[in-house]
Amino acid sequence: MSGSIALALLGGGGTSATTDSAAALTALRRASAAGAQAKGVEAKAKEASVKLALTRFTEGISRAKDVETALRDPRVSAVLLPALGLPDAVDSPGLAVRALTSNPADPKSVAARLSDTRWKAAAATLKLSSRGMDALRDPAIQKKLIEGYTSYQWRVSKDEEAAGISDALYFEQRMATGKAPSAYEVLGDAVLRRVVTGALGLPQSLAIQEVSTQARAITSRLDLSKLTDPKQAAKLAERYVMAANSAGSGSSSLLSLFG
């Protein structure tokens, strides 16, 4: 794998235009405030574009003859993959089919062998390897996917206020599960990787190093076990957003306040 490809796959995705760090910090705190997500998601669910996408999603599922047909249908993948935390895979239907139809409990399966652990989590959620189309037509699964997609759309909309907010919100929600990730789990999740390495100021070129080297670069700078503390998780998320919006003249002094 070339260095450029590794960076594209592991280093992170694009974000919106940057604003100044202080404004970005305010925007993140506003989005992270108690009740903000519930209110925002409720409003997002009423938008015509979201309603249309969800209608097309359910139509695609109802008309699919099998799982592969469903996963290759743009109407389905446009909702299902973002809902499962894999928005960057919408244009990779072949990978989605291979990973999501494999058994995540099998260490030799595609989902289990991919370095991006989001695939394994998604496959475990859907259970397509054992349930097939019954899973996609399950009202409970569809409800979860619809909620996940709407939440994703809300998070992404926050990037219009400042770069990196959607990543930071994803990170905070992941840490709120109460399970601290290992360095390898961080490296295996494209969004967690962006947030942690960005907050720590690690260069994107780190992605072309050996995985063990990347892991040491993280653990030597950050005690991941502390991220189960909401305050510590919020602190790192804020540092990431400020770094993503560091064009402002006051960014370095603001970042210094976060250790």
TrEMBL record:
Name listed for the protein in its UniProt record: DUF1217 domain-containing protein
Organism (species): Muricoccus nepalensis
